[in-house]
Amino acid sequence: MTDSLLIFTESLGEIRTAEMMPLSCISTFRTGGPADTVVFPRSRAEAVRCVRNAVRYGSRYTVIGNGSNVLFDDAGYRGAVICTSGLSGISFSKDGTVTAECGVPLTALSSRAAEAGLSGLEFAYGIPGFVGGAVFMNAGAYGESISDVLSGSDYYDAESDAVVHVAREEHGFGYRKSIYTENPGRMILGAEFTLSQGDPDVIRAKCSENMESRRTKQPLEFPSAGSVFKRPEGHFAGKLIEDSGLKGTCVGGAEVSRKHAGFIINRGGATSSDVLELINLIKEKVRTDAGIELECEVRYIGEKE
């Protein structure tokens, strides 16, 4: 551990940390070596303190939520991984606005909204991510996305040492895109969603229908990061991969799912290197067969850069 990281860790006081923790424990791919330090803030104030102190003491850091759209290096991470899973507060207002912290699982948010008779987040039920990541990449499914219901978000800007509120129209939303994908140094703290009143039974039924569709079509029984590639304009990544005859193709313990070719699964013992090699193989084959360049949706986090 470097001197700067040691000073950073000591500055956190009561905030929970874990040294040399395998990142496979906090990645849905279940791959990745040990991080020097993993930090678990439990509130917005603690999360801000983590980033502020990392910058102050010159410690390398990265922020993750559920680890559902990241691929950590097999050698781990030299620095601090700040995990926001402890920021899990949800509140409801009488006008149908739901406020959720960045560490709230999307399925939990959708479920709580359904219980309150609020519609608009049914599409998010079963998406394996947290609110922060969903806003970051404008997550979506079944033709709907976070941008349809989000009314605002808050982030911490380390450069100005300020918490900033962003209105919906300032998010620059696009397909798997937002102002946050363009400015990854901003740590999302929470978001507000404007939902509509509905029948709780009808809303819950739609959530269950979406979940059953996922179970039928997606390899949920294996570790994965969900869809690996963005949807190319006019095409579906999974169909292109399947048409290239890649279903079931393996590199080590990583496999192109036989159930849904858009997924790479960890069948057991896969490494991040296996996944990366398989991603490159897929891209090259689809480029050769269809003349289309697939763009990876999963964020690779290297050991030192």
CATH third-tier fold name of the largest domain: Uridine Diphospho-n-acetylenolpyruvylglucosamine Reductase, domain 3
- Helix and strand sequence: HEEHEEEEEHEHEEEEHEEHEHEEEHE
What structural class do you assign from the helix and strand content?
Answer: alpha+beta
* Helical coverage, percent range: 25-40%
Tell me the distance between the termini. 16 Å
Looking across the biggest beta sheet, what order are the strands in? 6-7-13-11-12
Number of domains: 3
Number of strands: 19
**On the 0-100 scale, what is the average pLDDT?**
95
Strand content: 25-35%
Largest sheet: 5 strands, antiparallel
| Oligomer type | single chain
Stretches with pLDDT under 50, minimum 5 residues = none
Question: At the first level of CATH, what is the class of the largest domain?
Answer: Alpha Beta
SSE arrangement:
Elements: H1 3-11, E1 16-22, E2 34-40, H2 44-56, E3 61-64, E4 70-72, E5 77-83, E6 90-92, E7 97-101, H3 106-115, E8 118-119, H4 131-137, E9 140-141, E10 144-145, E11 150-157, E12 162-167, H5 179-182, E13 187-194, E14 196-197, H6 200-217, E15 224-227, H7 237-243, E16 250-251, E17 254-256, E18 263-266, H8 272-290, E19 299-301
Parallel strand pairs: 2-5, 3-5, 4-19
Antiparallel strand pairs: 1-2, 6-7, 7-13, 8-14, 9-10, 11-12, 11-13, 15-18, 16-17, 17-18
